[in-house]
Design brief:
With 467 residues, this protein is an alpha/beta fold. Helix content is 37%, strand content 18%. The chain starts with 13 loop residues before the first strand and ends in an 11-residue tail after the last helix. Bound molecules: S-adenosyl-L-homocysteine.
Amino acid sequence: MNFLPIFINVKDQPCLVVGGGEVAARKVELLLKGGARVVVVAPELGAALTARRQAGEIGHRAEAFLPAQVQAHRLVIAATDDEGVNRAVAEAAQARNIPVNVVDRPELCTFIMPAVIDRSPVVIAVSSGGASPVLARLIRARIESLIPAAYGRLAKLVGEFRARVKQRFGHINQRRAFWEEVLQGPIAEMMFSGREQAARAALTARLDTIADRGSEVGEVYLVGGGPGDPDLLTFRALRLMQQADVVVYDRLVSKEVLDLVRRDAVKMYVGKERDFHSVPQEGINQLLVRLAKEGKRVLRLKGGDPFIFGRGGEEIETLAAEGIPFQVVPGITAAAGCASYSGIPLTHRDYSQAVVFVTGHLKDGTVNLNWPALAQPNQTVVFYMGLHGVPDICHGLTSHGLPASTPVALIQQGTTANQRVFAGTLETLPEIVKREQVKAPTLIIVGEVVRLREKLSWFVPAGSNPD
Ligand code: SAH
């Protein structure tokens, strides 16, 4: 973040705008909306500001800018077309530690003004950090069309009831759950369709009848976070990530995905690295039970899909045994994500009529698989957790009948900005892994379909070196 977004209270505060033209007028309009007392310094005013002066909405000093004028102002904005004046305003304000904005000159600003979507009291501010005000405005236009105007009225209704709800529910989690129910249900719909009185009555009734949630158990959401690229999350995953009280996540969940979790949710890392289990599986199972019994909404966030080599089954077995409500949200599994992002279709009518997902790492650390079943023609085999077993895997497949020339791809950190793809054969892969210092997580795809990559590769990871 180049700038920290904050909202400033300028109600009845003196704010100075230097410049009398149209750009200045737009800034003045925003300041007035915020309730500021605005003084404009400019030898002459354009039409818009002249009208405001005549209406008594602003003060005007018809003179050239002097540094001392910034004194005692809460904010200063420079909006002249004179580079020298703008710079002088910035210097004068900065010398006195007064926040200053110079229109279209982010490097002279100590604050910047976002594009605003006003659904007062809800205000959404969009900024590109000065990089592209046009982009920020386009984003604003999209958000404008997404957020019904009635959101402002809805927020006012919440404001009216806030104190009563606070009194009714002692704990912040209970209050949050109550408001989430109200804001996503029929009461919100009543507001949106203009039936304000009905909404008010329904809200009052709901407050009177709702059972005290204090003793209720929470819920566990077992959610697949996909292979890394946050764009691959499902809508449901995102919604639950936004409403969880606690997040229990492990190593495979990418930072970008984790960033989308509700900001004030408690985040608990439970590790799971090869040969190093930060919290043993049984401990995780019990942790989920304990948190849910405390009434929390627990997001158990896993890489990929929770039911594919994710131990999701084990975790919800414990929940089911304890009678704790849960739901499972599928995610894009590494095989699907890595295959797409490396241009390797897992099946193809000409090359492969079946695909097998198999783990290359057993509980006791050995690779002991049904080799004859895996070493079949016209079949794609995908190995999860196979990095350390690469020599065993290649040997197992060739010694059970697959040609040493069978194409293989190894995908490291698939779908992320750091994705790397190494293509070889069953013969060459062990050497490639050694040479390239490949790191987990990696996925291995074995089969003729790997050849298609030459034609179908499309994804260029942002972190790749063009050389
Ligand atoms: N539940 C997960 C798999 C967990 S097992 C899923 O459905 O994807 C962990 C293994 O998944 C890793 O050892 C690796 O083989 C694979 N994996 C997960 N994310 C990956 C990624 N972004 N790139 C490559 N392999 C990945």
